[in-house]
# Entry
Amino acid sequence: MGVKIVETCLRDGHQSLFATRMNTEEVLKALPELDRVGYHALEIWGGATFDACLRFLNEDPWERLREAKKLCKNTKLQMLFRGQNILGYRHYADDVVEKFVEKSIKNGIDIIRIFDALNDIRNLESAVRATKKYGGECQIALSYTTSPVHTVEYYVELAKKIEALGADSICIKDMAGVLLPNDAYRLIKALKENTKLPIELHSHCTAGQCEMTYLKAIEAGVDIVDCALSPFAGGTSQPCTEALNVALRGTQYDPKLNTEMLDIAAQKMQPVRQKYLANGLLNPKVLSVNANIIKYQVPGGMLSNLINQLKQQGASEKLEEVLREVPNVRKDMGYPPLVTPLSQMVGTQAVLNVLSGERYKMVPKEINDYLHGRYGASPAPVDEEIRHKIIGDDKVITYRPADDLQPEFLELKKKYKGIAKSDEDVLSIALFGDVAIKFIEQRNEDAKPTVIKVEA
Ligand code: CO
# Structure
């Protein structure tokens, strides 16, 4: 059987290349063709797509999902889910996690890819339980990174725990594109030998490694790889779907995708790419190879955020210095993988360390919480001297962080009963607060029937 392909252009593709700004009309544009390509799944939803809908596009992310489901009858829809963070930036109570999973599946999601930035299994448990309860396919992703503690043995042990937790498949999530071809070969061989679950690989072209890495991963027996349609491929995004399909043609790995449908879909999406290139949201910088990524271990999304952050501060010339500070902050924090929300946290701390002229003189609340153990266990111990400088003798928690959280869904539902029209609205508010409230109020206002004054 050939290798399976998950198409990412509707989620990670535009997230990696132009800050997830594609609107629903553009997302739906080529969906009938994409649905007939023969993909394993179409990735369509995640934290940034949800956030950008409410914050920048004035669109209901739930509505996008429902519309996509109507056009997508043959292909499974997939979403990315940050464990106890759901799609937001803090830990939510178990009842909100469960309700969000339930509603995602009811509105059209088939496969939920669940991960925790720190690979702390305790942060995955309640999302996994809910996914199985509501009949979704549960994939658990290992946040891939390199560090003295992130060895093949570390990932094999993690994979065994994931299998025991009841996952349907495992994804190696290499958000930075730092997985090298021969390391991928060894890692996938080891995972295939030690678990029965299908293995998927998700990586990025940022460092110029990814196509080579995919080929070695395929030779090592990987079952599924994530690719993006040509208008959204390469650079900080995934390898090109059409190219990989051709490269494997006639081999035992042939994905046998429908090339005619791929062509039409790519033609339909090409003008979307042109639009974002023309309006500057798609910065050509993210389209070229950045060989330094291997040294700095920075994911594409984080790189474009850092570029923007420094530009806003009028400090663009500090980029190299900030990129050199990122691995230092990471080491101090016990080598967290640089994935949301840790990528933003470590990135912001690196910016502050450089711009303020003194390391840890200014510390965001999130880093403070992290040092209290509120995100879960760090992969390696944090630097105690730095922890002490920041949080003094405060108590550090060692239990599952969500155990501290009281149920919150019914409370929110009651509080916002005047605004929220559905449980989906309540969930949007639970995750994105004022941003969601502002959107929902405007939407409700727009939906009011206009009173027509009849002239006497
Ligand atoms: Co990604």
Summary: The pocket of cobalt (II) ion is lined by residues 12, 175, 202, 204 (CB under 6 Å). The beta strands are 4-7, 41-45, 76-81, 111-115, 137-143, 169-173, 199-202, 224-227.
